[in-house]
Design goal:
The chain is α+β, with helices and mostly antiparallel strands and 666 residues long. The chain has 5 domains: 132 residues, 3-Layer(aba) Sandwich (Aminopeptidase); 157 residues, Aminopeptidase; 123 residues, Aminopeptidase (3-Layer(aba) Sandwich), CATH 3.40.630; 123 residues, 3-Layer(aba) Sandwich (Aminopeptidase), CATH 3.40.630.30; 90 residues, Nonspecific Lipid-transfer Protein, Chain A (2-Layer Sandwich). The protein is 33% helix and 32% strand. It has 21 helices and 31 strands. Helix 17 crosses helix 18. It starts with a strand and ends in a 5-residue tail after the last strand.
């Protein structure tokens, strides 16, 4: 395949194939690709039977499905697979509609249950996985539904339309975009973004390019005027298969319900279409609810096909870490294991380096933060020190950025690995020190073996203990149950600690392979039991092997631990601005009034710029440079280190331990 840059003139080539396309996907609108896709360096290859489009996404080359007739789909997909094979890369094809994914299933003799389509789930085997991606599904509406707004289901929207008519009667009009309206159009783009504290430089540059080529792209643009002021704008397109698409729509917050009038106008302009796509919600909950409120008659589902030999992947994992087959099965079937983050490097079509993610939750003061917990970074011994592990780590960080996480976490157990991960922007945040195991056994203690039925009690003990820390892992009963299953599957044990005087539980121990891998002790400051009594109780119950551990790790301040010998957990910030917006209220500030432009340098994702203003207790953020502010440039790791230090100093409003808590490696 010979690729070249995608240009506006390619819409005409694509349209020839779209004429016979049955679905509602608008992925082949060139204007949409240029304006919104996360892809970089989008390229096109025009073959005899198919058009191929690809771009770069998180350092991977990603293909759209081939644009071709159904009878040519198998041959076209084989060409994509060959392209990747020649580059020694795993194939990734995104945006495959139901029609064509069904063809793929038939061609590969894959039987699919109906729940796959209904539940947005995953199908996987030893060669690939197919993800039915809810966030990428397009919302498709019948034009007449949006024009008539009939029935009770549209009552609230009708009320908004009538309210607009009443307030702005004879004061509004819709006019086509012309060069005379260019300044007004882009001024509204700027105002809309300023209201949301977004930078719009890139968007404006792309829109200018699109308008320079709007005839080639076959798009139309209109402005909503109220009292001759620009109150809203829209860009629409009708594709050759009679699918309408709303490419862009914005309205000023000054004019209530202006968005409803834009929706009504778009439906009238596209009333001859078989359906109008308002595109996907990309997982944004507010956007999802807004699109659902207009009652789509169809969801155009999209599927992602990714080459992934899970057997080969976990064989390498198992050869390095030694986990049992039973434990690996539990990991793969756990809801915390995020298949999309499973990353690998191939050489001669064989996997040589891997990394994976499990989603966990951190509690940061009063907030719960979902984070990708990186684990299983491993490279075949003969391929080490060639940069493959670094490639895997960078891809995982990029994926975390693209999927909207604020933080990532990893927990290496050796000092040389800690130093290695620090090169990728990770920062030590959880300090440990070793203390005697006797500290677990308090005066008049009792110990008994627990089971999976104790998940709720273990969860309570865990969260009661960790609430005393500014940052800690957070668990619910579901997560604890999964954790216990993975401990038990390889012969690990749960022991519950209680006090005979009060008959209440004060802690627990997770024991596996001769080590205490986790414990909670709510009475850590209470007197210990006599060592001889401890030994006698454990011997009588048959648990004397616990004492072979001798030492346990406990959370500590940085000053209390041995930097060279003790273990740490590491955090990496992924999205500095979103992190600051969420957690600035917990950060200690020396100055009650300041105004700073901050540029956070990130060599892996992209640099992040924002302005932060503080006036007494009010904190505001913007992506717009303030000429009156002082400028700061800082590395991604130093930025997080400063934030963590400022968390530690916040003792006035949150007078809790100056420690962070994490008790597991993955």
């Amino acid at each position: 395949m010979d690729f070249r840059k995608l240009v506006p003139e390619d819409q005409a080539l694509i349209d020839e194939y779209l004429k016979n396309f049955n679905g509602f996907s608008t992925d082949f609108s060139v204007a949409t690709i240029l304006l919104f896709e996360e892809f970089e360096d989008v390229e096109i290859s025009v073959g005899e039977k198919a058009i191929f489009i690809k771009g770069n996404f998180s350092e991977d080359e990603v293909f759209y499905p081939p644009l071709c007739k159904p009878e040519d789909f198998k041959e076209s997909m084989e060409k994509i697979f060959t392209y990747y094979k020649e580059k020694d890369k795993p194939y990734i094809v995104t945006g495959i509609t139901d029609e064509y994914i069904n063809l793929f299933f038939k061609q590969n003799n894959i039987k699919v249950d109906e729940h796959y389509y209904n539940d947005y789930s995953i199908i996987k085997n030893d060669e690939f996985y197919v993800l039915n991606d809810r966030d990428s599904a397009e919302y498709v509406y019948l034009p007449n539904d949006l024009i008539n707004l009939g029935g009770n289901k549209y009552r609230k929207i009708r009320e908004k339309v009538h309210a607009f008519y009443k307030e702005f009667h004879n004061r509004y009009e819709m006019i086509p975009y012309t060069e005379n309206e260019k300044e007004n159009f882009f001024n509204l783009i700027k105002i809309w973004n300023e209201e949301k504290n977004h930078s719009c430089v890139n968007e404006i540059n792309l829109l200018k390019f699109i308008f320079e080529n709007k005839e080639k792209l076959n798009i139309e643009a209109f402005l909503l005027k109220i009292d001759k002021q620009t109150a809203g704008l829209t860009i629409i397109q009708e594709l050759p298969n009679h699918v309408g698409v709303v490419i862009l729509e914005k309205s000023s917050s000054k004019y209530r319900n202006a968005n409803c009038i834009l929706n009504l106008f778009e439906a009238n302009q596209l009333q001859n279409c078989k359906g109008i796509s308002r595109q996907e919600d990309i997982g944004i909950e507010g956007l999802r609810q807004a699109k659902l409120s207009y009652k789509p008659f169809h969801m155009e589902k999209k599927h992602e096909l990714v080459q992934f030999n899970s057997k080969e992947f976990f064989n390498l994992y198992q050869s390095i870490f030694g986990d049992s087959n039973e434990l690996i099965d539990l990991i793969q079937n756990s809801e915390t294991y995020k298949l999309r983050f499973s990353t690998f490097v191939m050489k001669n079509q064989k996997i040589i380096s891997i990394g994976a993610v499990r989603e966990k939750r951190l509690r940061i003061f009063n907030e719960i933060e979902e984070i990708p917990f990186v684990f299983g970074i491993a490279t075949k011994p003969e391929e080490r020190k060639k940069g493959y592990a670094g490639e895997v780590i960078e891809k995982i960080i990029n994926k975390a950025y693209i999927f909207g996480y604020n933080l990532a976490m990893i927990a290496p157990q050796e000092e040389h690995l800690i130093k290695y991960y620090e090169k990728f922007g990770f920062v030590k945040f959880n300090y440990h020190k070793k203390v005697s195991i006797e500290n677990l056994f308090k005066k008049n203690f009792n110990i008994q073996q627990g089971s999976i039925n104790d998940s709720e009690e273990i969860t309570k003990l865990f969260n009661n203990y960790t609430k005393n820390y500014k940052i800690s892992l957070h668990r619910d009963v579901f997560f604890t149950t999964e954790r216990l299953k993975e401990v038990f599957v390889d012969g690990g044990k749960l022991f519950i600690l209680s006090n005979n005087d009060s008959n209440t539980n004060y802690g627990y121990i997770l024991y596996e392979d001769g080590e205490i891998i986790e414990y909670i002790n709510l009475l850590e400051n209470e007197p210990n039991e006599n060592i001889n009594i401890i030994k006698n109780i454990l011997i009588n119950k048959g648990y004397e092997y616990i004492l072979d551990c001798k030492f346990i790790n406990t959370s500590a301040t940085m000053d209390e631990c041995n930097i060279e010998k003790d273990t740490f957990s590491l955090l990496r910030i992924i999205n500095p601005m979103e992190f600051m917006k969420k957690y600035s209220k917990y950060i200690y500030f020396d100055d009650e009034n300041f105004n700073k432009n901050v540029l956070v340098k990130d060599p892996i994702t992209e640099d992040c710029f924002f302005n932060i203003k503080k006036n007494n207790k009010e904190i505001k953020f913007s992506m717009i440079h303030d000429n009156n502010a002082s400028d700061i440039e800082i590395s991604i790791s130093n930025f997080l280190q400063i934030a963590l230090n400022r968390f530690m100093k916040n003792n006035e409003e949150y007078p809790i331990k100056d420690k962070f808590f994490c008790c597991e490696n993955w």
